[in-house]
Design goal:
Layout: E1 10-11, E2 23-28, E3 32-37, E4 49-54, E5 56-57, E6 74-75, H1 81-95, E7 104-107, H2 110-120, E8 139-144, H3 157-160, E9 165-169, H4 187-190, H5 195-205, H6 217-220, H7 225-237, E10 243-247, E11 250-251
Parallel strand pairs: 1-7
Antiparallel strand pairs: 2-3, 3-4, 4-8, 5-6, 7-8, 9-10, 10-11
């Protein structure tokens, strides 16, 4: 096993770095927001560093005013030393050290997180704004920014500077459940339709989506070249939150033209 227990320990960062002006909103998913460092050079950071910050979990679907931060919120406890330890020791062991970065915990204060929340609010996608940053989380994750440059431990410097395109794929759950655990009432569906496809149909039915993608993770994981190509084409056709392309650190909205 990779001996990197130290990566789970909080990394000490000087206080002057925690200024919202030094961190640019990059992107977000359902649970986390990501900010790229753009401030002065420091040995612990670089222009290729990001913070992954947990968002609040809500008990309800009420929309949040753009001028206030609700106190009726519940934190998503995902930023822990144990989580960083798992990612560093087990994920890197699974994929190999050359293909996964060390994640480090850094201590942050609520004022910095609130400043990030307010400064990024208006540039966030409208459908994401109902979840704000959890400003009382004591630590966040620091990691490499693969959207701006490929870290040196993965590719040689002479080649690295020429590469500035990053593809992000969220493949989702790519396995069917074992029949022995399925209720007889649902077996005829769950034995042949994956969890992701059921969820996207549910979102369409509840009008959370207006269109659904033809993407199925079972195709991507199938090992069949035609099915894998079909899955990737479906992701590019309707990327939703599962497929993104960055160029020079910026998200390409019309990335299909690039290909």
């Amino acid at each position: 096993m990779i001996n990197s227990l130290a990566a789970a320990s909080p990394l000490e960062i000087p206080e002057w770095i925690w200024q919202a002006d030094y961190w640019r909103y990059l992107n977000e998913g359902n649970i986390h927001m990501v900010f790229a460092y753009t401030g002065p050079s420091h040995p612990a950071l670089s222009g290729h560093t990001v913070l992954r910050i947990a968002k609040e979990m809500t008990l309800g679907s009420s929309e949040l005013s753009s001028t206030s931060i609700s106190s009726q919120r519940y934190p998503m406890i995902s930023q822990t030393p144990e989580g960083a330890h798992f990612a560093t020791n087990f994920i890197r062991q699974l994929f190999g050290q050359a293909y996964a970065s060390v994640m480090r915990m850094v201590a942050v204060g609520p004022d910095f997180l609130q400043d990030l929340d307010l400064s990024s609010f208006l540039i966030r996608p409208h459908h994401r704004r109902h979840r704000r940053i959890q400003i009382h989380q004591p630590m966040v994750l620091l990691m490499d920014n693969y959207t701006s440059s490929v870290p040196s431990h993965i590719i040689h410097q002479s080649v690295r500077d020429e590469l500035n395109v990053t593809v992000e794929i969220k493949p989702k759950w790519g396995a069917l459940p074992s029949l022995e655990y399925l209720d007889d009432r649902h077996r005829h569906i769950k034995a042949r339709v994956c969890r992701y496809c059921m969820h996207k149909e549910y979102k369409l039915h509840t009008k959370k989506l207006h269109h659904v993608s033809a993407y199925c993770p079972l195709d991507l994981y199938s090992g069949d070249v035609d099915r894998m190509r079909r899955a990737l084409c479906a992701l590019m056709d309707r990327p939703q939150n599962n497929f993104r392309v960055f160029k020079g650190g910026s998200l390409l909205v019309r990335f299909s033209l690039f290909f």
